[in-house]
Design goal:
With 86 residues, the protein is mainly α. It is built from two helices and no strands.
């Protein structure tokens, strides 16, 4: 048997197979599940974006301000000690 004969035999075997169409109800269920999953991901991404916006606009400046104030207060205490006030 040559390679071409094997290919012909394989083609004949494939030709005898039926083409199946997807079940319409199953297709609708799968499509609905996919849309629900995409909607849930979109909502989760929105929540994450809001959380990130809060951190960027409120928490980060507050943290930086607090750390800066602490650093400034530490410098003031060091200066007061150097001058003998404390």
């Amino acid at each position: 048997m040559t390679m071409h004969e094997a290919d012909e035999e394989l083609r004949r075997a494939f030709a005898s197979l039926r083409v199946h169409q997807p079940d319409a109800a199953r297709q609708a269920r799968v499509r609905a599940r996919c849309h629900a999953a995409l909607t849930a991901r979109h909502a989760q991404a929105k929540r994450r974006r809001r959380r990130h916006d809060f951190i960027v606009r409120v928490a980060e400046p507050a943290l930086l301000g607090g750390l800066s104030a602490s650093y400034l207060l530490a410098i003031v205490f060091v200066l007061l000690r150097l001058h003998g006030v404390l």
